[in-house]
Amino acid sequence: MFTDDPATAVKRYELTRGVAPLREREITATSRYQRVFTDHLHKRSRGGEQARLRDEVVAAAVVAAHNHVLRQWLREGGKDDAHARLDVALGAVTDVLSGWLDGRATGPDDPDGGDVVVVAVRRGAPMWRVVQQIEAATLP
Length: 140
Description:
Layout: H1 6-18, H2 20-45, H3 49-75, H4 82-101, H5 127-138
Helix pairs in contact: 1-2, 2-3, 3-4
């Protein structure tokens, strides 16, 4: 819809950014859209609570990618191909989530979830020291 009339979309965006009640309404609409999208995914997946988490994460990631691309496109005056930008952003979402979504990703409850690294540091150690010890324990 926005890409059909970039000039109007840019003006609408500028107005929405400048008027607090309109900005709040936009945030509410985005939240509602994400909830509806989550519900749609959850009905399709027919899953339990674990599927609900997955559906919410996917919906949030897709909505975030969409909104990021749209806002960037609007800030730049509605120039360039927003659809191509969205394709790239959604490709990134797919890349990031694909292992988790198809069950290849492992988690803390997975016995084959990879190596466990235990590092002992003194209480109050600076974060750089903690990172240094973790890196030392995990580097080949």
